[in-house]
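Handout, page 2. Input:
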Amino acid sequence: MGASHLLSGWLAALLTSSVAAAVALTSGVVDLDLVFPLNDTYAPLDGKLPIVFALSSQPFQPALASTLQLHLSYVLLDLNNQSHSLASGDLTLGTLSSTSVDNPYFFYSYSDKLAGRTTQFALQCTVSLVASLTSADNCSRGCNNQSTIITNPNLIYNAYFTTQAGAQVAAVSSSASNKTTCLPHASWSFGFNIDDYIQDKTDTYAVLAPNSPSFGPRPCAIQVDAATAASISDGIDTTTTSTSSPSGTVTSSAKILSPFSIMPACWSLLVLGLSAA
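Output:
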């Protein structure tokens, strides 16, 4: 099975990777972060709730995005009434960010269905990727011929937030507006090492390996700069729910994404969660 077909199903497909493809890309780290909403309490909304993610890489390589088979699905639920989703999205992150020179690159959407609700919500996120596992089968100590098994696991993370009267406004936190320097364990981060690339005909794919020190709740929530926060807010305010596919760039670092179909229900491998404050 070719690498281009690894994500066609939710069950892992396997192939063996050889030596890294001869491409002008180096090893590094890719991070996918939830920017908003945070595990926090907000005032009831009468407008749109931003849903924001960030994708970054170190060292920064603009050509890297086109090699990423990294997929994000999410659904927003009212925990007191889970029969209908309040928002959902299905995003192919490498494709969407491949024309950008920004690092980090922000993806955002929104929900306008929270008006008047005073309750607890869950943002359920599923990340699928092309991942590598080193195989030691039939290889004694010191063997130099270990192979790498390539598979496509699904990683799941749930973040929770509450709305109640008198709380702060639900807005993307910026370094200029936030009163605190760190909001611990308020969002999640997935860090992946890129140690290899595989070639499928003329296409090159980055192979990701989970980076455990940066896998799970963030020590501090991400704070964007004031200009980016304003750009995201303005872009969401001028977007209508009639949009059914990604639209144009608002600024060089923000792209609008509107609700898509509900995400696949077959989740596996890893479940991590944040409890509500």
